[in-house]
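Title: Prediction job returns without error message
Component: structure pipeline
Severity: low
Priority: P3
Assignee: unassigned

Description:
Job completed but the reporter wants confirmation the result is attached to the right record. Sequence as submitted:
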Amino acid sequence: MAETRSRKIFVNLAVGDTAKQSEGLFALSCDSRAEVDEMWMDPKAGQ
């Protein structure tokens, strides 16, 4: 788990126990700041 430390700093949460739960880390890409703002304000915008 080489990235555990950076992930913990980024989200400020405890690392999950994979025997009890699953986690997902997703990367999204947008072409402009306006598109980011729209996606952030309206989670259904990307559907």
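Comment from assignee: result matches the submitted record. Residues 4-41 form one domain.
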